[in-house]
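Write out this protein's structure.
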Amino acid sequence: MPLSSPHAGVVLVVDDAIETLGFLCEALSQKAYTVLVARNANEAIERFEIAMPDAVLLDCIMPGEDGFALCRKIKACPEWSHVSVIFMTGLSETDHIVEGFASGGVDYVVKPIKLPEVLARLARHMHNANVRRLAQAAVDVAGMGTAVLDRQGRIAWHSPQASRWLELAFGGKDSIASIWLQSAHTNGESRIEFGNSSLFARYVGSVGIGESMLVLHLENANATADANSRAQRLHDAALTPRETEVLGWLAKGKTNRDIAQILGMSPRTVNKHLEHIFEKLGVETRAAAAAIASGS
């Protein structure tokens, strides 16, 4: 089965050279990709805020902020970090290649671009990134978060759910969050209280040379009563199994396109399910339905 297919995905091409943009847009469109374009880093960030791509073809050297700095921004955002970044460069020196990988890129192609090579690399990286994203989302939708510490005890990676909880507990101070997670690694489990909530971290084992994985979960003082109330309301709504699945992914912030891809249906079908869910729950918006499902 080919890696690219109808509705193959969304690709953002970032390059200040108009001829390169035109050349790649035509080739990608012929392979059923939806193509977004940007001529600099600022435009690229704007595209991310409007419609998240599945992959980025990124020129290394552009006026203003270069591609390496832009890639670091993308990878620093938990909601964007899964996106595969492939550098396009006329710079084949080792230092530039190393900098590209260090900034978070997964691959690079040397200009002048060879289309078959670009398309093959793009399809493979998009496939791998999608598998990782769905696995990550599956952990979060189960009501847990995950974090990985490197051999120096620093946070090497965390799922979006874990990122949100650590932000609430430590106010964005990654160094303090790392120390707390290290204590869970050493003692088997750590707990920190903030507001009416308690955040727990439990060490589950090694995932690589010197890397440690921890599972996080959050408990609220009013969680039991709230959970009973939510369960009763959802029970009374009598959602179908498919509607329950759609609502679960909606509560995790997934778009209709994401839900369609995860559940193997069209965005139009997802929208129909949401109409039925809203009616059964007595709500009018996605936010209200998600609040019932998540208890927020």
